[in-house]
User: Fold Inorganic pyrophosphatase 1 from Capsicum annuum.
Amino acid sequence: MAGIVVVFDFDKTIIDLDSDNWVVVDELGATDLFNQLLPTMPWNSLMDRMMKELHEQGKTVKDIEGVLKHVPVIPGVVSVVKAAHALGCDLRIVSDANVFFIDTILNHLGIHDCFTEINTNPSYVDEEGKLRILPYHDFHTCSHGCNNHVCPPNMCKGLVIERMQEASLAKEGKKRMIYLGDGPGDFCPSLKLKEHDYVMPRKDFPAWKLINENRHLIKAEIHGWANGEEQQHILLQIIKAITIHEERQFLSVDSKFQTIPINAAHHEALPKALPVRY
Ligand SMILES: [Mg+2]
Ligand SMILES: [Zn+2]
Assistant:
């Protein structure tokens, strides 16, 4: 069952709000400077600047960790992540938050080890004890090259998905992808998904609206979810449907081997991972 890759956005898809807003505005109260600087710089640069501000106000990395540990999560998300992992799916994250926030929250929820990849903005604690947040893509050097106006300069999630598609095709043959997200940045990766993939946008959120306005551009099957219960139910249903479909394909190929002589061309067309039984 390693044939299914489930890619989660993080903010408003695993947790129930935006982690940057939660730390800076809701909990640690740097609202005034945040509002003042917001129109003047890209979000990713603003977050690094806000971490400097929090440090100057005497807020420590421990304070930030404490705040992250009581962030509200999507109800049921911990059990659905564990269930999908137990079913053999390859789970990954693609997020415009940062490594420190995501690692802290996933470790606290006890699901960090369920994920094989976390693709997000790098972060580290510097020698002064200040959290630094860097861009995933260093846009000061050059653009990431995606022209989609909803992709921020520091990260095009569509390019991350394309990299995953190329890597899996090269190594393990065709995989099916299920992508879950809510924000405008989740629209570009939705465009990259193929016919056999699935996109699960959060209903009435920006990704869902963009997908609905551009349905002709989406090749993947679209399944919206409005709450944790629907997210859990739909994701597990899709995994089940793919698994049943693949088992049937396996059985039909298996029986063909017993009745039809194997010719080279037929043999070549089989997926590489398929065990051949006689
Ligand atoms: Mg999000
Ligand atoms: Zn893009």
Observations:
- The chain has a mean pLDDT of 90.
